[in-house]
Amino acid sequence: MGYIKEKFKVKADELNVEVKELVKNYGTKKIDEGVTIAQVYQGMRGITGLVTETSLLDANEGIRFRGYSIPELREHLPKAPNGAEPLPEGLFYLMLIGELPTEADVQYLSSMWGRRSHVPNHVFDAIEALPITAHPMTMFTVGIMALQTESSFAHAYSEGLNKKDYWSETYEDTMNLIARLPRIAAYIYRRKYKGGQHIQPNGMLDWAGNFAHMLGYSDEGFRELMRLYMVIHADHEGGNVSAHTTHLVGSALSDAYLSLAAGMNGLAGPLHGLANQEVIKWILQMREELGGGMPTKEQIETYVRKTLSEGKVVPGYGHAVLRKTDPRFSAQMEFAKKHLPNDELVKIVWMVYETVPPILKDLGKVKNPWPNVDAHSGALLVHYGLVEYEFYTVLFGVSRALGVLASLCWDRALGLSLERPKSVTTEWMKEFVEGKVDAIAD
Ligand code: CMX
Fold it and tell me: Is residue 189 part of a domain?
C-alpha cells in the first residue's frame, strides 16, 4: 500500500468513528424546518440531503476546498518549476486527505499517475468506432465505459469483496482513472481535430502539463492555464449534477468507471458543463452577426435582449447556488489580466460581464445575474489556439473527475448507503394540500 493510501485509510477510520457517533447521538434531529412543495418541484434547491467531504459552497463567497478558497489555493498549493499556478495533484491530495500537500506528496501523485497512465487499445478502438462527427463528450463517456474492463473494484467484487475493502479498490480505480483520463481526452481531441496525429505522453511533465502536451500545446502559458483550469473546475460540493450523479450511481456500488461515466453524461448538459462551449459559441455568433471586430456595449445589450426574447438563456450567467460573481470566473479574469490583457475576445468577455448582470436583474426572476465559471474559460482557450469549442466540456470533465472521484473514495470509506429518496405523485400533492393525506415526515 502506498503512503497516500495508508494515510487515507487512517483518516477514513477516524471519520467513520465520528460519523457513527454523530448519527447515534443526533440522528433524529431535524436539519431544517422541513421541505416545501416548491423545493420538490424546483430541483430540490436548498434541501440539505448529501454529505460531501471534499468541498463546501457558500452562496456569496463561492467554493472552499477543505476550507481553502481559490485565492488561498493559488497561494498555498505547490507549483510546477517556474510556474505560478497551483498543481491539480496538490488539490487532489487536499480533497482526499484533508491536509495541504507537501512538494513530495505532489511529486508522488505526479509520478504515480504517470506510471498508471497506460490506456489499453480497445478503449481507442471503441472511440474509433464512433463517427468523427460524434460530440467529444460522447466519445469521452464511451472511452470511460470502455476502460471499465480495468476496474479493480468490479473484478474484486465479482470474486467476493469484503465491504471493509470497498474503499481500497475504489482508491485503485480512482488513481487509474485520473492517470488515464488525460490520455483519452487528448486522443479524442487529436482524432477529431488534428487528423488522428497523436502525441505520446511526456513522463517528465506534471499531470496537467502533460495533458497540455498531449493535446499538442507546448506554450508554457497554456500549460499554466491547464493547471489553473484543472484546479478550479475540480469540485463544487456534492449537489451539482456531475457530482451528485457520480455519487448516486456509486451508491449502487457501481464502480468508479460506471459512476464517473454517468456523472460525465450530466456534465454534458447545456445547463451544466456544456455551458462553456455555449458561451464562446454565443460570443462568436454575436461577433459574426455584428460583422466582426469589437462590439459596443449597446450592441452587446441588444444581442443579450435578442437571446432572451428567443426564449434562450444567456450562457455562463446564473447559478443554482451562487449569488455573487463566481470566484472561478474571477481567477480566470486575473489570469487573463496577467497573461493576455489585450486579447480581443477576453475584452469582449469583460464587456459582457459589465452588460449582462443589470439586464438579468431587471427580468426580476433570475436569482443570480452574475457570471459563473463557464463565462470566461473559452476566451482563454481560444487565445492559446484551442478554438474547437465542442471539446471544452471534455476539459471540464477531466478536471471534475478529481473532485467526484476523491468523493467516491470517501463514500466507500464511510460506507455511505444506497441513495433512495422518497418521491410522491402530483395526485398525492393535491390530496396533501387538501388535507386528505398527512405530510410524509409526520
Ligand atoms: N439567462 C436567462 N434566464 C436565466 C438565466 C440566464 N443566464 N439564469 C436563470 N434564468 C432564468 C431561469 O431559466 C428561470 O426561468 P423560468 O422561471 O422561466 O424557468 C429563472 O431565471 C429562475 O432561475 P434561477 O432560479 O435563477 O436559476 P436555476 O437555479 O433554475 O438555474 C442555471 C441555474 C445555472 C441552470 C441557470 O442560471 C442557467 O440556465 N444559466 C445559463 C446556463 C449556464 O451558464 N450553466 C452553467 C452553470 C455552471 C455549471 O454548472 O457549469
Answer: yes
